Amino acid sequence: MPATAQDPPATPEKKAAAKPLSAPQKALRKLGLVRDIDLALHLPLRYEDETRIIRLRDARQGEVVQIEGEVTHQEVLYHPRRQLLVTLHDGSDACVLRFFNFYPSQIKQMAVGARLRARGELRGGLAGLTLLHPAVRAAGGALPEALTPIYPTVAGLPQPYLRKAVLAGLARADLTPTVPPPLLHEISPHGRWDLREALTFLHQPTPATPLADLQNRRHPAWQRLKAEELLAQQLSQWQARDERARLRAPVLHAARGGLHERLLAALPFQLTGAQRRVGEEIARDLARPQPMHRLLQGDVGAGKTVVAALAACIAIDAGWQCALMAPTEILASQHFAKLAAWLSPLLAPRGQAVAWLTGGQKKKARAEALAAIESGQAALVVGTHAVIQQQVRFARLGLAVIDEQHRFGVRQRLHLRQKHPDARQEPHLLMMSATPIPRTLAMSHYADLDVSTLDELPPGRTPVVTKLVAAQRRAEVIERIRAQVAQGRQVYWVCPLIEESEALDLQSATATHAELAAALPGLAVGLLHSRLPPADKQAVMDAFSAGRMAVLVSTTVIEVGVDVPNASLMVIEHAERFGLSQLHQLRGRVGRGAAASACVLLYEAPEGGRLGETARERLKAMLETSDGFEIARRDLALRGPGEFLGERQSGAALLRFADLNEDAALIDWARRAAPRMLREHPALAQRHIERWLGRRADFLKA
Ligand code: ADP
Ligand code: MG
Fold first, then answer.
1. Per-residue pLDDT tens for 500-533?
2. CA of 487 to the centre of ligand 2 (A)
3. What is the pTM of this model?
4. What is the CATH number of domain 52-138?
């Protein structure tokens, strides 16, 4: 029937759809709890046992207890701090409820004679038994039969609302099994639980379940769930690997008598065994018609750049272009200087060149670079992120090298892949990092990545001596700078912040620069920080690289990759404020030549106090080892895996339930099960990935 003027203006459904979300609904969205399955998989952070009332006489100190009794005394003290003290008697003993923050309504609620139920950690002491800030409600009322789940939440989303939403989601969610029983049986006895059973149990554990089994996540229901989660992660990575195997990339072979051979002959040093081995691994990948996806990891100073240069030679020999990107302009320009020095003389006779491309470049220079890239005359392009911008068009991009890849976002890497002129092909990808990925992390989060390792430093290096020096001895350190410079050496001095920040009370780079310049008359002392215009940064770096500048005061902009072999002393101010990997990176700026080098970690404990536990662990690690792998392992233990994953951490892609250290056995299982499941039950595998990762799956694969 055709529509008439009498038709109602809008359907009720449409009105309902436009209704704004309530605050808790918005909060649910914020937590990513959109689908029923998201709610069902939103598992408790911990549990509280509200099922029992315990008599004070039977309770043990240090335990969380729930008691019921009558208020026999109440008072508000003002010394040493304002506090409310309420004495509760339960017939077996008395206990003081102590509150430092309280409202008038609470004074009323806990008046003498009131019967209360209180929950908190029981402490003993001179003043007798105490509960500090217990949860309090009126006595009586039914006790819950199961442990009370406490969910991870955000502001505006109260536990009871969230609990209801989760249970409703769990009831509605489609939880038909996806993992085939034969695979599950391999992880018995956990495999005997089905998914709905496990989830129901974890949301509402049965009354007799020991709290400890739930808290430490070793309960079979937890194990079952972690197995599912790890399997989803492995499946998505294996799938990515399969997808990549179907992609096409140019087959790149080094030419006889070509650039590769000639660069090797021209280098002023012999490759280390590790460099040769890794070079061969890369060459094998490049010769395949599938895109390489390889991480080259090697400690600072291991000599990754020359490996990249040799890979670039293979691509150029085969008639393709290579792009090399670094996260900062300084680092990129160092790469450019080095690669141009090595390759320009070899490329020039062929009418080719090394091009330089960054954001801060002059218009004309940029236009020339773009033209050379588009015509293919620029055989190698070195730069920052500018290289993957939209306007940059490559004639034939065959290989992309990304230095310090953990600083590059996943999105940027995707952009780079799209630079290939033929949409069905993508360039080979080589990522380089001085921050090695710990093994468990590589197995779980980087299953889709091939890893090459430079485990040998070039010969002739003297190890860097690391010293921990209290900030009070700053003057001695400055004297030491003078001695180094007198021997013709150069010095880095790294400060944590750019400008005086009152809140943090950090020595600013600017102030330190002025101080050192005054203390070291006659020496060229330069200043480098991220707010300098690019041209100034470049000028400072050039002066330091060329040896015209003795001391470089800098913020962490020099953290990665900068290579000035004549620098032999690194001073890091407020070392206690840096992360472990960052300290290791900074230390790696010295010890790059044959001269004996030192790294001085200046530290300062907060006023009147001691350094925090983590800060001490980090400094201790720096003293004890200079092995990047050991550093990475300790860093993982100190900080958790987030830092290693860069952008992946924000993508909620980290494992929510499984733990890389605790669950190595389950990770092994998932690694074995994933390829089998993809082969034998592809549809189930797909469902499993969607259930667990939803839209995040694409992100994880990048
Ligand atoms: P990183 O792995 O930290 O990027 P670089 O590539 O910057 O290390 O190399 C550090 C220094 O060692 C550079 O000056 C480089 O030219 C030099 N180098 C690299 N390989 C060798 C080698 N096999 N023998 C001697 N020096 C080398
Ligand atoms: Mg490097």
1. 454 454 457 888 899 999 999 999 999 988 777 8
2. 27
3. 0.69
4. 2.40.50.140
